[in-house]
Amino acid sequence: MTVYDATTDVDVVVIGAGQAGLSAAYHLRRRGLAPYAxxxxxxxxxxxxxxxxxxxxxxxxxxxxxxxxxxxxxxxxPDPAAPxxxxxxxxxxxxxxxHALPVVRPVRVRxxxxxPDGRLLIATDAGDWTAKALINATGTWSRPFLPYYxxxxxxxxxxxxxxxxxxxxxxxxxxxxxxxxxxIQVLSEVAEVAETVWVTRREPVYRDGPFTExxxxxxxxxxEQRVRQGLPVRSVVSVTGLGPSVAYRRAEQLGALHRxxxxxxxxxxxxxxGDQELAVDAIVWATGFRPEVxxxxxxxxxxxxxxxxxxxxxxxxxxxxxxxxxGPSASTIGANRAGRAAVNEIVRxxxxxxxxxxxxxxxxxxxxxxx
Length: 371
Fold this sequence. Notes:
371 residues, alpha/beta, FAD/NAD(P)-binding domain, 2 domains, seven-stranded mixed beta sheet, 7 helices, 19 strands, globular, disordered N terminus, Cation diffusion facilitator CzcD-associated flavoprotein CzcO, oxidoreductase, Auxin_biosynth/cation_transpt, FAD/NAD-bd_sf
């Protein structure tokens, strides 16, 4: 008989307590699974907030690129000038308290593997858990993507994940790389205090007017098609184009949206297109992120196409594993829906629990000690 020391046995482990993980945890409670006894949420951060807690202090609620409430708890109307890194973590903290979610932190998951008895072994820096099913909600923030370009630049380079606002770039010439909402945010702020140059690999696609529900379904379908085929994930934003936003309008007013094609190489003092060189003081790489799924490697889920094949939220090659906040659900509204869908499938896999859950309705943001 194999003996597994220092392990905690539950039915479901959720990894990550951002929007997707909290949504999944809520639906697990709603379907009758008991906190701690039947499921836990393992979160690597010291406090609530997910990736929002690490965003730039300059990102205000007025310039957030879309945010949707978690199920069964509305975010009170925030001050548009309030930093998103304070408002959203406070909201998440209140949500965890309101629904008594079993979040254990800080816990860093090292690996997920399959035991001979069919249970999953979740190895962490704080002991091990075993489970019958797993919901992976680790997001992408911890894996910023930096593309390779030949050459060497001696000035400052930073990824958007390390961007902390425009003040440090005052009076400089700053190259911003990337065609998404993050690049637009940086341009809208830095162009106030510095000269900016914007470069992208592809010609940006601009979208006038509101983003319709039909357009949203079409965009999600494109991303879903890729993950079903096991191809590397593309974000939903990558297929929706750039729409009207506070940040976009401000960048446009500042004349910061004159896009140039991607450079060929880095140089000592800047970048170059063929024989033409441009000297810059700093480069901000707003080039996106990649899914944090390295801990799932022992399960052998990665396909020959480079990604994990997903049907809905379920890993095609292992029905015990669900990925939420991944691919088509990598948005706040998509994460909510994915959390519910994953739990529905897991309940079918495990069999319906007998418990019942009623949410507490009196918890407010102020009760969590976070603003």
